[in-house]
Write a structure and sequence with these properties.
311 residues, mainly beta, 3 domains, eight-stranded parallel β-sheet
Length: 311
């Protein structure tokens, strides 16, 4: 008798810690992709779209497809006899450049990539079709420059293998408590708002220009010490008690309202801000902090900053 879906998914996700034939992405060979989940209840299908020179797809039920699309993008789909069975799909690819989940066929719980040096796009992670996703692992993808992954059930996200990533949107992952971008030294834009991060370290992201990490609700530590190119920071609606931006010499807009910053912490923050002129029209929004009414905004204003106690 087959188990219920929830029980199967929990067992499979837990098995990534070892055993049961579930290797982490680091153990997958170059070009290998692993997908785990259920077929759609109505169509009994699991589908994805990919662009590659060659694919060999083991659909997990004894069916193996050898396909040579020669770099042309197309949909790959398989119909199962029983949609209640948790499936493991193993794909060997050659010159994979794109994979997208654009059709509402199947519930994907786990997605793993071995080294895919030519992979440029992973799509469909942000359109609600992968809202059951609990595991996302990628070993190495040097060509990947943009990644959107939100609305999932992910608890952790490690993107150190994406060394050329420039833009990352990973917000609205309500269970996400761990984000590692320490290997993403070319990252320019990061939006990780509306998660459950308690700490965030972007100090290795030396090219970061825009950082949005508002409404994490539990974020109490933010390290942006290496972000000398940072221009815009929104870390409002968190639990920060201190904020050191003294190394962020290009900063022009700062939103840090609704935190736990005392007057002493705000004055220290003001002291570390870069000097600007009135023509730069730079703003800091620091309202609804414990020290908002008793801090000394003139410290920042004397450096050319406009200080607002709103927001």
């Amino acid at each position: 008798m087959p188990c219920c879906r929830a029980a199967k998914a929990t067992t499979t996700a837990a098995s990534r810690e070892g055993g049961n034939g579930n290797p982490p992405a680091g153990d997958l060979k170059a070009g290998q992709v692993q997908i785990k989940g259920y077929a759609d209840d109505y169509s009994k299908k699991i589908s994805f779209y990919a662009t590659a020179k060659k694919l060999t797809i083991d659909w997990g039920d004894g069916t193996i497809d050898d396909i040579v699309p020669n770099g042309n993008g197309r949909e790959f789909s398989h119909e199962y006899e029983n949609a209640t069975i948790f499936q493991t799909i193993s794909i060997n690819t050659e010159d994979l450049t794109e994979i997208r989940f654009v059709y509402n066929y199947g519930d994907i719980y786990e997605l793993r990539f071995g080294a895919c040096p030519k992979l440029k796009e992973i799509g469909g992670l942000a359109n609600g079709y992968l809202n059951k996703l609990t595991v996302f692992e990628i070993n190495r993808a040097e060509s990947l420059e943009q990644l959107n992954i939100y609305g999932t059930d992910l608890a952790e996200l490690n993107l150190n293998g994406c060394i050329n990533l420039k833009s990352l949107n990973c917000y609205w992952n309500d269970k996400l408590t761990s984000l590692d971008v320490s290997g993403c030294t070319k990252l320019e834009i990061l939006d990780c708002s509306y998660n459950r991060l308690t700490s965030l370290d972007v100090s290795k992201c030396t090219n970061l220009k825009t950082l949005e990490c508002y409404e994490e609700r539990q974020l109490s530590s933010l390290n942006a010490s290496g972000c000398t190119k940072l221009e815009i920071l929104d870390c409002s609606y968190n639990q920060l008690t201190s904020l050191d931006l003294s190394k962020c010499t290009n900063l022009t807009s700062l939103f840090c309202s609704n935190n736990q910053l005392s007057a002493t912490a705000l004055n220290s923050l003001f002291t570390g801000l870069p000097v600007r002129t009135a023509a730069d029209y730079v703003w800091i929004y620091c309202g609804n902090n414990p020290g908002s009414e008793s801090c000394n905004p003139s410290i920042a204003e004397n450096k050319g900053w406009n200080v607002s106690n709103n927001w």
